[in-house]
Design goal:
Structural class: alpha+beta
Distance between the termini: 35 Å
Number of strands: 7
Strand order of the largest sheet: 1-2-3-4-5-6-7
Helix content: 40-55%
Shape: elongated
Strand content: 15-25%
Largest sheet: 7 strands, mixed
Order of helices and strands: EEEEEEHEHH
Length: 140
């Protein structure tokens, strides 16, 4: 990404990143990186192949500056422009839906034991993620 001094941001094809605020936008409107309560939040939802390239470019910029992402969202398609708490709450709802889908697959007759063990591990990872999101929402 190229830094445009007059705009105070890094730019590439339809993506911009503001290093001061750590905000990033795809197509000028879908905000996928921001800060909240001193934490860096990044929405890595698979919105589209192009947006995934935008996200990768911004991740590279963050990495080159040794900026740690505290919470990586993966389940909500909402951008932070809709309000950070709204997005975090939707992340929880969407993650719980994924857990339900995995649970339904586990309970389906004739599913492989090894596959179900992997699903159970994934469910635990998602539960841990939900806990991290809830903790951030509660933190004062």
């Amino acid at each position: 990404m190229k830094f445009v001094k007059s705009r105070g941001r890094f730019e590439a094809s339809n993506v911009c990143f503001y290093p001061e605020s750590l905000e990033a936008y795809s197509y000028g409107w879908w905000k996928f990186s921001t800060t909240y309560k001193g934490k860096v939040l990044f929405n890595y939802y698979n919105y589209s192949p192009t947006t995934n390239r935008h996200q990768s470019k911004v991740l590279s910029e963050l990495d080159s500056r040794d900026i740690k992402i505290h919470l990586m969202l993966r389940y909500t398609d909402k951008g932070f422009q809709e309000g950070i708490e709204t997005v975090l709450k939707d992340e929880i709802v969407c993650a719980k839906e994924v857990i339900q889908d995995l649970t339904d697959l586990i309970n389906k007759p004739k599913t492989r034991k090894t596959t179900n063990e992997k699903r159970k591990e994934r469910i635990q990872e998602i539960r841990d993620h939900i806990g991290a999101v809830e903790a951030l929402l509660e933190k004062e």
